[in-house]
């Protein structure tokens, strides 16, 4: 699958599908996701000129050592799913760990999915082609990054109101 994703691309995914992601994805975790949500809710995000529609948000920090998933069920991360999906247009949340049933339902209502990616930092680094800090550089590796990837492998963990954790 190539980013950005269209509505049709996401509506065809089901729990257990193994996908390969190529294109630009956004990276953020605890420190930056609440900031994005606040700006989306207040309308300030539009001034940044960063289009999230059809995008993927990877729950990770970006460091010189590479990228690897962090737990998506942290309060600040899982709490961002609704705003990012409904107001930002994010179609895929990428991370690791179980998410709440109400989050699974909300994803279905917004034609969005949650995919898990194994913690394989070395492999992901070899498939990361470019990286660019696009917002909040003062947060260092926890800033918002856009990375260009080729063939990131992920497993759909929540789609259409179903979850592999149930």
Tell me what you see in this structure.
- The structure is a single chain.
- This protein has 166 residues and is of the alpha/beta class.
- 24% of the residues lie in helices and 30% in strands.
- The protein has six helices and seven strands.
- It has a five-stranded mixed beta barrel with strand order 1-2-3-4-6.
- A hairpin with an 8-residue loop joins strand 5 and strand 6 (144-159).
- The longest helix has 10 residues, at 33-42.
- The radius of gyration is 14 Å and the shape is globular.
- The model has no long low-confidence stretch (mean pLDDT 94).
Keywords:
166 residues; alpha/beta; five-stranded mixed β-barrel
Q: Structural class of the secondary elements? A: alpha/beta
Portion in strands: 25-35%
Give the biggest sheet. 5 strands, mixed, barrel
Cα-atom radius of gyration: 14 Å
Secondary-structure element order, as H and E?
HEHEHHEHEHEEE
Strands side by side in the biggest sheet: 1-2-3-4-6
Oligomer: single chain
Distance between the termini: 26 Å
Which percent range fits the helix content? 10-25%
Number of strands: 7
* Overall spatial form: globular
The low-pLDDT segments are: none
Specify the number of helices.
Answer: 6
Overall pLDDT score: 94
């Amino acid at each position: 699958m190539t980013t950005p994703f269209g509505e049709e691309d996401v509506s065809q995914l089901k729990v257990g599908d193994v996908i390969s992601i190529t294109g630009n994805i956004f990276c953020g975790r605890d420190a930056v996701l609440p900031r994005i949500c606040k700006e989306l809710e207040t309308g300030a995000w539009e001034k940044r000129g960063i289009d999230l529609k059809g995008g993927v948000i990877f729950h990770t920090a970006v460091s010189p050592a590479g990228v690897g998933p962090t737990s998506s069920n942290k309060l600040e991360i899982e709490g961002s799913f609704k705003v990012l999906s409904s107001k930002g247009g994010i179609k895929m949340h990428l991370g690791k760990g179980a998410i709440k049933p109400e989050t699974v339902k909300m994803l279905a209502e917004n034609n969005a999915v949650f995919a898990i990616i194994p913690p394989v930092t070395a492999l992901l680094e070899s498939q990361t082609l470019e990286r660019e800090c696009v917002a909040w550089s003062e947060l260092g590796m926890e800033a918002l990054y856009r990375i260009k990837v080729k063939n990131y492998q992920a497993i759909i963990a929540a789609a259409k109101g179903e979850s592999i954790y149930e």
